[in-house]
Amino acid sequence: MKKRISYLLLFIATVIWGFAFVAQKAAVILPAFTVGALRSGFASLFLLALIPITDRLTKNSRRLINDRKLPDINRAELIGGGVLGVILSVATALQQTGLENTDAGKAAFITALYVVIVPILSALLGKRPGMTVIISVPISVLGFYLLCIKPGMGIESSDLLVLLCALVFACHITAVDRLSVGCDGVRMSLIQFATSFVINTAVALIFEGLPTLGALTEALPSLLFLGIGSSGIAYTLQIIGQKDTDPAVASIILSLESVFGVVGGAMLLGEEMSSREYIGCGVVFLAVLIAQADLGNLKSRLKKCKKDNNS
Predict the structure, then answer these.
(1) Cα 246 to Cα 265: distance, rounded to the nearest angstrom
(2) What distance in Å separates the CA atoms of residue 89 and residue 202, rounded to the nearest whole number?
(3) Category of 220 on φ-ψ map: left (φ > 0), alpha (ψ -120 to 50) or beta
(4) Counting runs of H as helices and runs of E as strands, what totals does the chain give?
(5) At what angle do helices 131-148 and 104-111 cross, to 10 degrees?
């Protein structure tokens, strides 16, 4: 039952993230770190209001402010949330900057490459990659080529930024898996976005300056969706959902954001992609599935079927 609930939470996060590509595309009238600061600020406020509610619903003994008038946040939540906040700040800045010149659907599929990168990161940390990873990497490279390299043109800088974003998001998924043990997901997410807010605000004030009132007003609906929906809700669901889910299964579910990114771009932005780019999307998605396939389980099932047929 726990796993089914975790799958559902991750799936909901995936749907929200897919349509968030549309909101990010609509928010490009503001500089990347300004968008990051505002969405993180909205997320932090939302989570501050949410924690007392979740404490009561889960009937735990924790309270946001304890008897000593100090925040009831433990060391693991503080350190883990801080690390996730730094990683997330870099990832969202790369993604937001890349979206300035990339379709929402294309950016969604490039971002989905993180499910190929996650096993590679594990290999760098000492875990030998399986045959599925060895097979999926060149397939994903082919898909990225079809998706992003136009005839007679080199790769666009915006596509490279989104690809770098996929690498950083892979680091984020790996970090969530390692750092969320023993943590309250909502509190950890609060620290994550509070950290992201501080980083993005500092960079925005130094390099981007204050946005105009007109631009803020125009981007406000998108910022609210990004802050409350994509950040406050979806990233919190990711942390909670990954606790009781195998990372490989979680990666497959989360990679479906690419599908909803394309659907959202077509439905809400009227974006169109060429047949070559659609083929590239299909190849990338194939690589995503192959990267997470369980060949060992498949072999055991085939052996069992063969044994049953012979008996």
Answers:
(1) 30
(2) 12
(3) alpha
(4) 14, 0
(5) 160
In 10 A of CB 178, how many CB atoms?
12
HSE at residue 94, side-chain half, CA atoms within 13 A, is 21
> What string of DSSP letters covers 155-211?
--HHHHHHHHHHHHHHHHHHHHHHH-TT--HHHHHHHHHHHHHHHHHHHIIIII-PP
Q: Which residues contact 264 (CB under 8 A, 6 or more apart)?
A: 18, 19, 21, 22, 104, 105
Count CB neighbours of 106 within 10 A: 27
- DSSP states of 80-123 as a string? HHHHHHHHHHHHHHHHHHHTTSS-HHHHHHHHTTHHHHHHHHHH
CA angle 295, 298, 299 (to 5 degrees): 90
Q: Is 246:109 a contact under the CB 8 Å cutoff? A: no
How far apart, in whole angstroms, are the C-alpha atoms of residue 158 and residue 234? 25
What does pTM read for this prediction?
A: 0.83
Q: Indicate the pLDDT class of residue 68, thresholds 50, 70 and 90.
A: low
Amino acid of residue 40 = S
For residue range 82-110, what is the model confidence (pLDDT) as tens digits?
999 999 999 999 988 888 887 777 887 88
Tokens standing for residue 225: 């969706």
Contacts of 49 (CB under 8 A, 6+ apart): none
- CB of 72 closer than 8 Å to CB of 65: yes
Integer Cα distance of 174 and 191 in angstroms: 18
Residues in the chain: 311
